[in-house]
Write a structure and sequence with these properties.
Keywords: Metal-binding, Signal
Number of strands: 10
Largest sheet: 5 strands, mixed
Helix content: 40-55%
Protein name: Molybdate ABC transporter substrate-binding protein
Order of helices and strands: HEHEHEHEEHEHHEHEHEEHH
Distance between the termini: 73 Å
Pfam family, one: SBP_bac_11
CATH superfamily of the largest domain: Periplasmic binding protein-like II
Strand order of the largest sheet: 2-1-3-10-4
Organism: Thalassococcus lentus
InterPro entries: ModA, ModA/WtpA
């Protein structure tokens, strides 16, 4: 065989092999749509980047209050995976046969804190003796929706535990999700707010003035599960990644805790 013909044939073989390899990678790579609680944004963005680099899958992360996400899934939104800030909402979806029960797993935990704008933060003890009305100095207390969003529900439970809720119930600025409540305080629109510790960790314009005792509300757990009829190998791989050591390390760095801690 002439040399030029051999080289041409070799090039054709290499091109064909490359095309097969690329096609094989494309067949394995999935586009994964993840619905996740707003409080998880910073940590989950980082985890997703690492997952994409290691697997070739692509993730689209949609953040909102858990109640909103659950209702969207109920209405048929094309999510592959849900990471919830509420055990109750995950229970609800499971009861409607909208998640894959055997895939359900708790990926991390959190705790509640009282925050103030950074230049106004003065440490206090969060207990029945807290003069919350005095600390608000005529302003409002920022919280996520207290009857629908997990962070708001936990916060209201803690206030009620210490008989503080009635004192401030008519002075709460309720936001659609916990990150919106965080923004009220960060922008100095409210003197105080109740958010997750991970939210306070993510926002340099606020400081924690009190850690809210975990026994004053239900344990904070973030369950994740595949959405029924929407899951694939990529979504399962991402769910497995969320429970691994790398993801756990990222959660910890962003102020999350062991589940329920």
């Amino acid at each position: 065989m002439p040399i030029f013909s051999f080289h041409r044939s070799l090039r054709l073989v290499l091109v064909a092999m490359l095309a097969l390899a690329v096609g094989s990678i494309g067949a394995r790579a999935d586009q994964i749509t993840v619905f996740a609680a707003a409080s998880m944004k910073n940590a989950l963005d980082e985890i997703a980047r690492t997952f994409e680099d290691e697997t070739g899958h692509t993730t689209t992360l949609v953040y909102a209050g858990t109640a909103v996400l659950a209702r969207q899934i109920e209405q048929g939104a094309p999510a592959n995976l849900l990471v919830s800030a509420s055990v109750e909402w995950m229970d609800y979806l499971e009861g409607q046969n909208l998640i894959v029960p055997e895939s359900r797993v708790v990926v991390t935990g959190n705790r509640m804190v009282l925050i103030a704008p950074k230049d106004q933060a003065k440490p206090v003890e969060f207990n029945e003796n807290l003069d919350l009305d005095g600390l608000l100095v005529g302003g409002l207390l920022a919280m996520a929706l207290v009857d629908a969003v997990p962070a708001g529900i936990y916060g209201k439970a803690a206030l009620s535990h210490y008989d503080l809720w009635d004192e401030v119930s008519d002075r709460v600025a309720q936001a659609d999700n916990v990150r919106a409540a965080l923004a009220f305080v960060a922008l100095d629109q409210t003197p105080l707010g109740i958010v997750y510790a991970s939210d306070a960790h993510a926002e340099p314009r606020v400081d924690v003035v009190a850690r809210i005792p975990s026994h004053s509300h239900a344990p904070i757990r973030y369950p994740a599960a595949l959405v029924a009829g929407q899951s694939g190998s990529g979504a399962k791989a991402f769910l497995d990644f969320l429970t691994g050591a790398k993801a756990s390390g990222v959660f910890e760095q962003h102020g999350f805790s062991v589940p329920g801690g």
